[in-house]
Amino acid sequence: MSYYISEGLKLNYDVYGSGEPLIIIGGITCNNHHWDLVRDQLSKKFQLILPDNRGIGKSEVPRNDYAIADNAIDIVNLINHLAIPRAHILGHSLGGAVAQYLGAYHSDKVNKLIISHSAIKFNACSIIYFEHMLLLKEAGLSPLIQATSVLPFVFSDEFNRDPKNLEEYLENEKNEEYPQSLKSFKQQFHVLRSADSSSFIQDINVPTLIIAGKTDKLTPKEDSLALLAKIKHAQYKEIHGAHVPMIEAPNDYAELVIDFLSLSQ
Questions:
Q1: Which residue from 254, 263, 256, 190 is spatially nearest to 233, judged by alpha carbons?
Q2: How far apart are CA 95 and CA 191, in angstroms?
Q3: Where is 239: in which H helix or E strand?
Q4: Torsion of CA 142, 182, 245, 104, to 10 degrees
Q5: Strand 234-239 to 2-6 pairing
Q6: What is the mean pLDDT of residues 180-188?
Q7: CA nearest neighbour of 128 among 187, 184, 189
Q8: pLDDT digits (tens, 9 = 90+) for 56-91
Q9: Torsion on CA atoms 102, 108, 112, 114, rounded to nearest 10
Q10: Could you tell me the sign of the dihedral formed by the alpha carbons of 169, 12, 52, 87, in that order?
Q11: In order of start, what are the domains of the chain with their CATH numbers?
């Protein structure tokens, strides 16, 4: 683990492999271990940089609420800390909203951009889902109960029908070493509710790949197609599964990322 300072916060990141830098920005509740199943595959091709977002994993929890712009500044400060001119950026879900902001306002730091399972503005299903999660956390229910309740939303029916998949996922969630605090979850939910790139999405002018899950309920492919319609130089790919391809379809997901970032443009 390594640390850097951004806006007065001590934030964690891990680095694997060598090559062109690729920074992955995770979604709400997700620390960098959510990328374990694609880590080896991606780090064979790139210098893979996995930060813990503010308030997540081993990163410090902010005192006050914050916005997408603050998450983006954290990534800019990480790039500066690593003394690299720019990086490929992959943002998933809420991290995809951060990636959109980086592509529009900090394009000098972005080589290629991947917006995965995200949206211009998160839909009602996403908001209701995270409101449900908030109620579970406020009730003090165990991590295992919380994890079980989200399965129909984040995974496909095919994934959920396999007992081995569920056993592995729930075991990992139950044994999470750095569970998110209630305060941090509320802060991230505030960011998600207010995220809206409609005023700047058309300003993204870097090579962009948009990835959608074929059965994603939280950010359905219609949300990704709306991004495609607004972003110049964008490509679009669909992947099997629902909202968390790094867990449900890690090999196919990593290949999509590698293929796009390896293209000459």
A1: 263
A2: 11
A3: strand 234-239
A4: 180
A5: unpaired
A6: 97
A7: 189
A8: 999 999 999 999 999 999 999 999 999 999 999 999
A9: 0
A10: negative
A11: 2-262 (3.40.50.1820)
What is the model's pLDDT at position 172?
A: 87
Question: Would the pLDDT of 264 be above 80?
Answer: no
The β-bridge partners of 239 are 213
For residues 200 and 225, give the distance between their C-alpha atoms in angstroms, rounded to a whole number: 17
Whole-angstrom Cα distance, residue 56 to residue 67? 15
For residue 61, what is the DSSP state? P
Q: Please give the helix or strand (H or E) that residue 91 lies within, else none.
A: strand 87-92
d(CA 132, CA 145): 12
Structure tokens at 133: 């999660």
Q: For residues 196 and 121, is the Cβ–Cβ distance under 8 A?
A: yes
Question: Rounded distance, CA 32 to CA 136, Å?
Answer: 23
- Give the pTM: 0.97
Closest CA to 246 of 77, 92, 102, 104: 92
Instruction: Render pLDDT for 193-239 as a digit per residue (tens, 0 to 9).
Output: 999 999 999 999 999 999 999 999 999 999 999 999 999 989 999 99
